[in-house]
Design goal:
Length: about 90
Amino acid sequence: MPIHRRLPKRGFVQLGDHLRAQVRLGDLARTTGGVVDVLSLKAAGLISHSVVSVKVFLAGKLDAPVKTSGLSFTKGALAALVAAGGASE
């Protein structure tokens, strides 16, 4: 069978795509509590309840220092978090 008939005719979606989410750096200030983690982002309504891992990217400003736990960051977002006086575990 030729390859053009074997390949799917619609877009590709990764199997675990619904388990990951991206959050803006400026949205971290919308959470309540001392430490921002996946559970606090779910409680604030920033991510869906099926999400397991979160990556924070640089968009917006962070005015207050924020302590985070269990989140991954882009290089620019991590530098902005440290410049604002926050910390990441």
